[in-house]
Amino acid sequence: MVEKKDERTVTIDGQEYKLDNLSEKAKKQLVNLRITDEEIQRLNHQLAIAQTARSAYANALKEEIEGLKATAH
C-alpha cells in the first residue's frame, strides 16, 4: 500500500513533524531559522569574495615588491 503524502513535514534532530501539527510559535521559529540560514549562506559568500580579493591584493603587493627589488640591483 502506498501512502499519499500531501502534508508537509519538517525534520528536527532526526524527528519528523507535520507542519500542521506545530504551534504558531514553532512555525514562527522555523521561519526565523530559515531566514537565519539564508543570511549565514549570504555572509559565507561575501566572505569567500573578500578572501579572494585579499589574496589578489597580496599577490599584487608581492609582485610590486619583487619589481622594486629587481630595479634596485
Which key features would you list for this structure?
73 residues; mainly alpha; two-stranded antiparallel sheet; 2 strands
Rg over CA atoms:
26 Å
In terms of structural class, how would the helical and strand content be classed? mainly alpha
Strand content: 5-15%
Assembly status:
single chain
Shape: rod-shaped
Provide a brief overview of the structure.
By secondary structure, this protein is mainly alpha-helical. Helix content is 67%, strand content 11%.
Describe it.
- There is one protein chain.
- The chain is mainly α and 73 residues long.
- It has one helix spanning 24-72; strands at 9-12, 15-18.
- The longest helix has 49 residues, at 24-72.
- The mean pLDDT is 91.
Task: Describe the protein's topology.
Layout: E1 9-12, E2 15-18, H1 24-72
Antiparallel strand pairs: 1-2
